[in-house]
């Protein structure tokens, strides 16, 4: 992995990296986030008793939509033809909901930002749908868990 940042031009100003000469490869990124809340809030989510509707269904759609729009909100991201997006939820304990996003493409640049955006927006959607009953929810940590494909090689959190 290189320590050189490639998002700067000769004038040391930000630029979108030119990926024209890169090879097309299959790329997959997995990101995770969490949202912690009061036990009553998570119980109501699990039981489908939130007044705004099915929290996990709405958060899942929001995460998918966010991944597809990442290039519109992160200035130096490339628009990518995403070939797969999956958002999954797990009840970690009585106060914590884990969110995992897997994003895939076949292209010249990776989908790490799309996966991170997907889980972040899914968590924000949970917050939005439940804030009337629990304004103390905490989002995070949010992190890239793995990525495969591309010139820089594979990454798996925790591996050296």
TrEMBL record:
UniProt lineage: Bacteria, Bacillati, Bacillota, Bacilli, Bacillales
Tagged with keyword Lyase: yes
Which Gene Ontology terms describe the biological processes this protein takes part in?
A: Mo-molybdopterin cofactor biosynthetic process
Which pathway does this chain act in? Cofactor biosynthesis; molybdopterin biosynthesis
Q: Which reaction does it catalyse?
A: (8S)-3',8-cyclo-7,8-dihydroguanosine 5'-triphosphate = cyclic pyranopterin phosphate + diphosphate
The record's section on NCBIfam families has: moaC, PRK09364.1, PRK12343.1
Give the top-level enzyme category: lyase
**What protein does this entry describe?**
Cyclic pyranopterin monophosphate synthase
- Per the UniProt record, which EC number(s) apply here? 4.6.1.17
Q: Where does substrate bind?
A: 76-78, 113-114
What GO MF annotations does this protein's record show? cyclic pyranopterin monophosphate synthase activity
SUPFAM superfamilies reported for this sequence: Molybdenum cofactor biosynthesis protein C, MoaC (SSF55040)
What does the annotation say about its assembly with partners?
A: Homohexamer; trimer of dimers.
Offer one Pfam family short name for this entry: MoaC
Provide the active-site residues from the annotation.
128
Q: What task does this protein carry out?
A: Catalyzes the conversion of (8S)-3',8-cyclo-7,8-dihydroguanosine 5'-triphosphate to cyclic pyranopterin monophosphate (cPMP).
Q: Which residues form the Molybdopterin cofactor biosynthesis C (MoaC) domain?
A: 16-150
Indicate yes or no for the key word Acyltransferase.
no
Indicate the family of this protein: Belongs to the MoaC family.
Q: Which UniProt keywords apply?
A: Lyase, Molybdenum cofactor biosynthesis
